Amino acid sequence: MPALLDADDERRYVVKLRGAGQGPRVLAAEFLSGEIARQLGLSVPRISGIQLDATFGKTEPDPEVRELFQRSAGLNLGLEYLPQATMFDPVAGDRVSALEASLVVWLDAFVRNVDRTPRNANLLMRAGQLWLIDHGASLIVHFHWPSAQAKALDPFAPIAEHVLLPFASEITEASACAHEQLTPEFFKGLIEAIPDEFLPEDDGVSLAEQREGYRSFFAERLQHSSIFEQEVQRVRAQSV
Questions:
Q1: Contact 34, 50 (CB under 8 A)
Q2: Which of 67, 86, 144, 166 has a 20 to 30 A CA-CA distance from 205?
Q3: Domain boundaries in the chain?
């Protein structure tokens, strides 16, 4: 359950709370997938760390919400609120270019994001521009690191449900762009920037091991991207 909060930088944020039921790894997924999207040239709201004081929400009348704020004291993650944005709806006439659609599909196959379907597009339109939001359902490999290597080589069948698949006719071009932009140096800096608070050690895996898990998964996934690219092209050929 995100919160819409005004921060002391005079910006408004949709805040993902660390104490929510899905746990802090969802915030790590939001940060990683969002910044990978930005590196690919896609539009993502500003991502910022949001500090909540321990006394925040003490006057909240709803006890469940008040408890959630209390569990989330400290560092959380916010995405800058986009006023006047509307949900992407191709039925209503919203359109994107073939390359942009292909980059989004490529991204979601790469990070294994299951949550960009017609039922829940997690795409906004604002002044004719497409914005990507809500990547918490990506990178679920971090819930079970022993299976991460196998998942890195998985074609990702859920991509068949992607809302932008009908428009994604330039997967080869998207792949070339991704391989140019997603360098080892980029991933090194990105993974180092994950806040420790988003990487719980409750499963016995240390912070260093978790960071290495992300690095290894991204390297393997990128090296073998033809596996999921071929799956995208296969299911698209069947559906268009």
A1: no
A2: 67
A3: 3-80, 86-239
Q: Which long-range contacts (CB under 8 A, 24 or more apart) does 146-154 make?
A: 148/213, 148/216, 148/217, 149/216, 149/217, 149/220, 151/112, 151/217, 152/216, 152/217, 152/220, 152/221, 152/224, 153/220, 153/224, 153/227, 154/112, 154/227, 154/228
pLDDT per position as a tens digit, 66-116? 888 888 889 999 999 999 999 999 888 899 999 999 999 999 999 999 999
CA 69 to centroid of chain Cα atoms: 23
- Which strand (E) or helix (H) includes residue 201? none
Q: Which residues pair with 132 in a beta bridge?
A: 123
Percent of the chain whose pLDDT exceeds 90: 80
Residues recorded for the chain: 240
* Contact criterion met (CB below 8 Å) for 87 and 121: yes
Please answer whether residues 191 and 214 qualify as being in contact, where contact means their C-beta atoms are separated by less than 8 angstroms: yes
Residue keyed to tokens 């497409």: 130
**Model confidence over 129-145: pLDDT tens digits?**
999 999 999 999 999 99
Q: Which amino acid is at 148?
A: A
pTM: 0.94
Helix axes 225-239, 207-223, angle to 10 degrees: 60
